[in-house]
Amino acid sequence: MKYEVVMGLETHAELDTESKLFCGCSTKFGSEPNTQTCPVCLGLPGVLPVMNKKAFEHSLKAALSLSCEISEFTNFDRKSYYYPDLPKNYQTSQNYFNIGNNGYVDIVVKGKEKRIDIHNVHLEEEAGKLVHPETSGANYSLVDFNRAGVPLLEIVTQPDMRSVEEVESYMQTLRNILLYIGVSDCKMQEGSLRFEASISLREEGSNVLGNRVEIKNLNSMKAVLKVIAYEISRQSSLLDKGEDVLMETRLWDDVDSVSRRMRSKEEAHDYRYFPEPDLVPVWIDQEWIDETRTTIPELPVSKRQRFVNEYTISDYDAGILTDDKLLADYFEECVGLSQDSPKELSNWIINDVLRELNERKTNVQDFIVSPKMLVDLVKIKPAIGSSIAKDVFVEMINTGKTAPSIVKEKSLTQMGDVSELNDIVAKVIDENPKAAEDYGKGKKSALTFLIGQTMKVTKGKANPKILTEIFKEKLSAGSK
Amino acid sequence: MLSHELSANQIKEKIIKREITAQEVIEELFEWINLKEPLIKAYLCLDRDGAFLKAKEVDKKLDNGDKVGLLAGVPVALKDNICTVDIKTTCASKILEDFIPPYDAFVVKRIKEEDAIIIGKTNLDEFAMGSSNENSAFHVTRNPWNTDCIPGGSGGGSAAAVTADTVFMALGSDTGGSVRQPSAFCGNVGCKPTYGRVSRYGLVAFASSLDQIGSVTKDVYDAALLLQVVSGHDGFDSTSATVGVPDYISDINNVDGNLKIGVPKEFFGEGLNSEVGSAVMNALEIYKKNGAELIDLSLPHCGYAVATYYIIATAEASSNLARYDGVRYGHRSQLSEDNIIDMYSRVRAEGFGSEVKRRILLGNYVLSSGFYEDYYLKASKVRNLIRNDFEDAFKKVDCIISPTCPTPAFRIGEKITDPLQMYLSDIYTIPANLVGIPGISVPCGFTNTGLPIGMQILGKHFDERKILKVAKLFENGTDFHLKKPELN
Amino acid sequence: MDISVKEIEHIADLSRITLTVDEKNTFAKQLTNILGYIEKLNELDTDEVQPMAYATFLKNVFREDKLKSSFSRQEILELSPSSANGFFKVPKVIE
Ligand SMILES: [Mg+2]
Ligand SMILES: [Zn+2]
């Protein structure tokens, strides 16, 4: 049987703030357990929450960037469930009046555009972290509340995705948007960006939705893609056998690459939502919305389009450049310094800069070669030739020196004087009669050999292009 | 007159004038406490050492001629659901039996800054849930006027202590009448300010949209004094009002203009004890003689207040009390723990008393799947209707006067087996909490058997100044507040 | 509406409170009684009435995103009935 897969995604993104959502504790990642806590984020008796303005503004910015309708009236609700990482045993979240509703994200899959609808965007608080000791026989778990109360943005799609590729593109596009607007660092290795997927299968052509399986604990895009593949095969084999897919919540086990039924009983999700009486409502007026809009930078989709139009680079290259806002900024800064060579600058960035960044595991922000330095290199290139330019680039990274100073220091400027080269070429032909003869017989590699010999003599300073022309002229003249 | 019989303001004046030192006041007070506390059992915890330390500090300031605060040297008690650094805060619950908060409540900071001396924490119904003090996990406080009677609840400990002169003033919390009702039963002045007037930060939550810190004092002047100290904006409470705090004290004896007093018929109907009713009617006559105009009113939805209250209060309580799970603080079961759900359920079964359990169950019931709209949402709407009643009424009157409670203090054990009857004893105090308006209870008479009767004065939002003046007007012409019980 | 013992058991589960048999029976009776009283709200037509969730008219209350020092871990962990290696300790949680 052929099945159509129907998928929706819930994304949790930790918002980038100095302090937690309701208290002044730090949100810094990786500190010693329970060193970033206070009575408020530990839910001690008598404490009250006060909303972090930055977290709310970030959420509003995100909702606008995801083309949501913004609620004029929004408030917070308590979501009740017992779990040891949840200090108050309720999570302050939003349920009845979310900040943003009915938004969308446009994605491109195999060159085709598709719109993924966003059901809602809301703000809530992060839970703490449970640690399960590895020691065998340990009959306890440990709780660290450093993350408890970190502001968390939840973005819920409609079940609009139909393939692994769409899900992948959605995740990347979403991540990119969040990075672009600067509301989250989206560091998956630190848990800043996490996913929950809902997956159901239905017979192709059917309108009836199959039973939906929700999968939690997806801490990377890779895990999402793996679980989808896993669930599609698990569910379709069940359906093939005529068995039912259970409506349930499953947990992804990244170690064994399987999804498992959740064992903790959750009372069929009776969250008992009601308005959080310790916070007051937030009214968002048009002025606030307009003001926030001015802080939203050009988003990746439109930037990519603009790069193609403005700089006449390929859509593919524009895609790579705009995939990372910092890289796109780097490129534009370069172009701003040297308007006449966007294509060449783009090539340098995509090929050389990106390669070095990957190798050095750094980002373009911390890259030693500034846009000005790269532009200077490109400007001096005609005088030193491509191959030396590549060496100079590496030298720049290693020493932090500029291209002109490296070129000057090492006297790398190419010998462009034709009469001087004429003499040297003549000498090389004299010394390598066999090669000259071979070339005459049509053996092209002989020319490469001869140029190589010349380079040796000139210590690489000869301009290969000019050299080739002189050789061709001399050898063809000789054969006549 | 013995020093402990004076009002807070009187003792403060004496201390400031160096007629008595703060340390002497504490000395004498603790002697009296040692004598009378075994009879009344108003306290859960006394901090003698801390009190002397602070008294010494106040005396030193005065000796040096340094500026002292508004409550210089005044011994103050706190209901044991107000967090105090270094002093246990138990909420009269086993689940917090050994809990010592690492921080002070906003009001505690304020009274400390004004040089008050905290002498101890008073008894209450567990987590402030109750109207009689019988729900304390530790012991029942007695009414000083008749030790077979309850002192009222939930703040019965504070009220009994003030009446027994084992403290000069106290802070409590009022969610459905927990400051006003025990004040009425014990013959004190109990003031619940407007919701948001006093920060709730550090008050252990019962029902967040109803809770408000209030005062229990010997007279109206002291109420104004204490309110002056604890009122004002607090950045740690999102619901804390930004409205400026007026001077409650200096002009308290002048009621300006023609006073219009609303008399709502719904507060004088069925169920009202006749002695209580006539005491309040007599009080209204005194106002009339003083030139006030009495205006008959109807607050048609007030008959639904108790039902509304028990949905909203229990819903909020069920979630506020979810945090007591034995993980981060509080009681933990001694039984073996193999599973987290069992641990929670055991901790909470052992730690909570039956009234608290009952309310948690009710609250979770009304919020649970399928019932939210029928109960919580319905109640929220009726709450709005009740608010509208009061808004309409306050277009016509300056304040509303009623009995504080339908009966005087009842006997220990009388209502404890019938929760609904117990709930109905708060019928006149609950509306103010639902609406968020201020209310004050002042003594206005005694029953034949010598139990105090309280009269409630309700005002507009943030109009504490007015109700204090109206209360003071009555107090100036009467001596009910000066009567003392015989404590044998 | 009558609250059955079974319903009490379900709410007790939600509330994370173990109840004795006696408690279940008593609470079932008492809650039936209280909810019966609460039924009187249905006398009122509230279709056109807005709910009142807040006792204050305040709105848009925020704090600035400023760091404050956290509490000392030792002070915090001392409150706990069970801790180990800087963590709070609970019975093993199986998902
Ligand atoms: Mg969520
Ligand atoms: Zn904190």
Provide a quick synopsis of the model:
The complex is a heterotrimer of chains A (480), B (488) and C (95). By secondary structure, chain A is α+β, with helices and mostly antiparallel strands. Helix content of chain A is 41%, strand content 20%.
Give the N-terminus to C-terminus distance of chain B in angstroms: 18 Å
Query: What is the CATH top level name of chain B?
Result: Alpha Beta
Please state the CA-atom Rg of chain B, rounded to the nearest Å: 21 Å
Low-confidence stretches of chain B: none
Overall CATH class of the domain at 5-43 in chain C: Mainly Alpha
Helix content bin of chain C: 25-40%
Structure write-up:
The complex is a heterotrimer of chains A (480), B (488) and C (95). By secondary structure, chain A is an alpha+beta fold. Chain A has 3 domains: 3-291, no CATH class; 300-410, no CATH class; 418-479, Orthogonal Bundle (Arc Repressor Mutant, subunit A), CATH 1.10.10.410. Chain A has 15 helices and 17 strands. Chain A has helices spanning 53-65, 164-181, 221-240, 286-293, 300-311, 315-322, 325-337, 342-360, 371-384, 386-399, 403-409, 418-431, 433-440, 445-458, 464-479, and strands spanning 3-14, 51-52, 69-70, 73-74, 77-80, 90-93, 100-109, 112-125, 129-131, 140-144, 151-157, 193-203, 213-218, 248-253, 258-261, 274-275, 282-283. In chain A, strands 3-7-8-11-1-12-13-14-15 form a 9-stranded mixed beta sheet. In chain A, strand 13 (213-218), helix 3 (221-240) and strand 14 form a beta-alpha-beta unit. Chain A starts with a strand and ends with a helix. By secondary structure, chain B is an alpha/beta fold. Chain B has one domain: Amidase signature (AS) domain (Amidase signature (AS) enzymes, Alpha-Beta Complex). Helix content of chain B is 38%, strand content 12%. Chain B is built from 15 helices and 11 strands. Chain B has an 11-stranded mixed beta sheet with strand order 1-3-2-4-6-5-10-11-9-7-8, sandwiched between helices. In chain B, strand 2, helix 4 (106-113) and strand 3 form a beta-alpha-beta unit. In chain B, helix 7 runs antiparallel to helix 15. The mean pLDDT of chain B is 96. Chain C is α+β, with helices and mostly antiparallel strands. In chain C, 37% of the residues lie in helices and 9% in strands. Chain C contains 3 helices and 3 strands, in the order ααβαββ. A two-stranded antiparallel ribbon of chain C has the order 2-3. The mean pLDDT of chain C is 95. Chains in contact: A-B, A-C, B-C. At the A-C interface, strand 2, helix 1, strand 10, strand 16 and strand 17 of A face strand 1, helix 3 and strand 3 of C. Magnesium ion is lined by residues 93, 124, 154 of chain A.
